[in-house]
Protein 1
Amino acid sequence: MRTEISLTEFESGQTVRIVEVSGGCKMRGRLMMMGIREGNQVTIVNQPSRHGPVVISVAGSQFALGNGLASRVLAQLVNE
Amino acid sequence: MNILLVGHPNVGKSVVFSQLTGVRVLASNYPGSTVAFTEGCTRLGDLPARVIDAPGTYSLSSPSSPAEEVVVRMLEDADLVVNVVDATALERSLHLTLEILDLGKPTVVALNMWDEAHHKGITIDVGELEREIGAPVVPTVAIAGEGLKTLKERLQNAPPPSATGRVTTEAERWATIGRITSRVQTLEHRHHTFLEWLGDCSVRTSTGLPIAILVLAASFLGIRLVGEVAEGYLAAPVFEQLYRPVTERISNALGQAGLVHQVLIGKLIHGRIDFLQSFGLLTTGLYVPLAIVLPFVLAFYFWLGILEDLGYLPRLAVLLDRVMHRVGLHGWAVIPNLLGLGCNVPGILSTRVLEDRRARLIASTLVSVAVPCGSLQAMIWALVGSPERGGGVRYVLVVYGTLLGFWFLIGRVLTMILPGTTPDLLLEIPPYRRPHWPTVFRNLGLRVEGFLKEGIPVVLLGVLLVNLLYWLGFFDTLARIAAPLMTQALGLPAETFAAVAVGFLRKEMAMGLLATMDLTIKQLVVASTLLSMFFPCVATFVVLARELGWRHLGISILVMLVASLAAGSILNLLM
């Protein structure tokens, strides 16, 4: 059993599987549109040192998620 | 017949549009470069058709910005829909595709950037995709014009979509999308290319910041260099050697005095025409916009065009996100500010990509008050940067520094006063692409054309008006009224208010007036700063009023007045 933590707590270069996206349904909808939804695998391209946006890569596209958004996305580490 | 182009941001809709209609539109490598819609005409077989390029949208059911809301309304009037899809991101694009097909309108899907998908090792079975979604699919490489002919042919007899199992919930829809994608798409793993590596480097905290500083420093120097070369080796010789004899002949023919001479040529300074100070239609009216401002505008837009096409701007937005949060905005608000450095009008229009009214008010106010447009910057350099007037780069930096300081201050204050919170950044970062020179030069051409078409008539009209108002003694009255404020608080001669007032028409016009006034370098610095911050030009003002509405416009103007007087007084005290 692995622990789920928010996207802001992983390190650059790690690949994670999204477990839960919380937040309003409009924001969830927008995130889903970008491939950020339960079950999808994303790679952390850059984890900023303090409160900056997390840059992730999902299905070949890159997105920047502001810190508040990223903290509402829970994920778990995937074994490479 | 109305054909509407719909798709995610930054999938190349504007390029497809240009190819279909022959209309040149700005296209760039970042989401949201189309904030309003553009129309053009094409022919489908024998029938004329109207083509509309819509702003990019991720979804029809939950539009998140005014630009996206426009699309939902426009779809109602469309007869035919072209859904432009990024072939490298098929899965997430299909959600919008299915939403469009649910509307039941005849739709053709253009699988754009087909070549890039190939390079990334993505293969899509087009025939299978057509069967799955029940609509024609055409692979295209819009930038090279590939597939556009087929697209038009398929559009001619596009059937309404065959209903392929309507879905009721979001979960079902995503499940359908997953099934379709796995059936039609195969992925092959490719190694990182150099551009991908560079792309990652420029968003990483450790390497991104040095790269950003390097890019910005290079931009500053590059624009200066190109601008100086264009001005010194092209514009100045043309005016001095070719154009001066012409104007002198006209001046002599008119007897060097009289009303017509005053309007066409202006005052003679020490018996000679002075292109900067004479203030006639044929002298200052043409010299300032063409010889001083144009070289700068050209250099600025050329450089911006390269950064845009490369795809650097979204990365800059990521790096500056934290700073932008301090002024109540997220990183993507660097776009209005950067565009504003060329001209405030497109800068303010581009605030439409921001999600809420609070952010749009803050961004528009910052742009109109503290972001100097190309005309202003050229003027600042010419006035306080020229050694002839006792100036230098040092003084230019004082003006820029003051503007930057107030940009930050105004942002901080508005963030604290205005209710609401700062939305989070959610931005797609496009891959770096090698600049596509035809696109870069087309964008440059469009922007310079815009400057010439909108700028020069206003400057000429303004010169005419200023001559008339001088003749009527209007500026003397104005100067008397403003005298206490100008002399006491700002340390400027009362006549400078005339220049500030004229700046409302078009900023570069104030320059000719300020140049005649024999000001000290300190006064020039104060006047330039005041002119930059105090009231935008009329074109900006109109756009500001339209975008903000009256109440927010009021707030914006109040900020403008307070900040510009504060900045002027502080500089007057400290310098």
Note: Chain B has a mean pLDDT of 91.
Protein 2
Amino acid sequence: MTAIATDVTDHHLIAQFKEGSMEAMETIVDRYENRIFIFGLKMCGQLQDAEDITQDTFLNAFKYLNSFREETKLKNWLFKIAATACIRKRRKKKCEPDRELSLESFMNKDGTFETYDIPDWSDDPSDKVLQAEMKAVISNAIKTLPHKYKLVFNLRDIEGFSTKETADILGISIESVKTRLHRARMALREKISHAYQEGKSV
Amino acid sequence: MKEDCKKNFERISEYLDGELGPDDCQQIEQHLEECPECRDCFDALKKTIDLCKKNAQEEIPGDMQNRLKSKLRECFGNN
């Protein structure tokens, strides 16, 4: 028999839900809705899309929770459903195919590196305007990553899943997670640095 | 870009995430000490990740929870 991977609280809530408890269902929502919503927002950039993704995720989760065998953590299972909802939403919008990010594009043609100027978040925490501007720059940089890189970046660096967990959630290899994560980070470094430089020169 | 830099450049994320073995770590650390360009790349990448993580907080619409729960009750209330 496979060991149960869900944490104790989730395990009890799932058992109560299977017995028909609506309170257990709502407690599961309370535990995970914010994270799913933020993930949806980082993936799509629109409040309504993020709310749709959150709703789709929980509707599907509770539809299939009776057959969930707890071989993975509930949180990971919910993110797997949420990632699928993001991919479905993107397909519905008939977005352009994903661009590939190549490592060579982050190296200068003459074989040198460009120097990147990335601000510290703590540069001036009292400056709310600066922080709001930085927040917009960062959100926009993440939002404009190609979809498959954005999925990996949000799961690994924002949600804190391990490489193996991210690979399981997305159904891709560990090597693909590592490659996509590295390229996403390099692209973000470039985008944030350029936006910061432009802001400074205004 | 020198071959040595390229090889290390490709593995900087893995190094940052603690996913390399001790020999590879040592090799990268030595390279970072000797190569200012790669050191700069490494520092900028670390700062980028840090900035993005600190920026992760978002405002959740206050009425979303009510809408979500009433939809779920409507769908699963007669379980």
Note: Residues 103-197 of chain A form a domain with the Arc Repressor Mutant, subunit A fold (CATH 1.10.10.10).
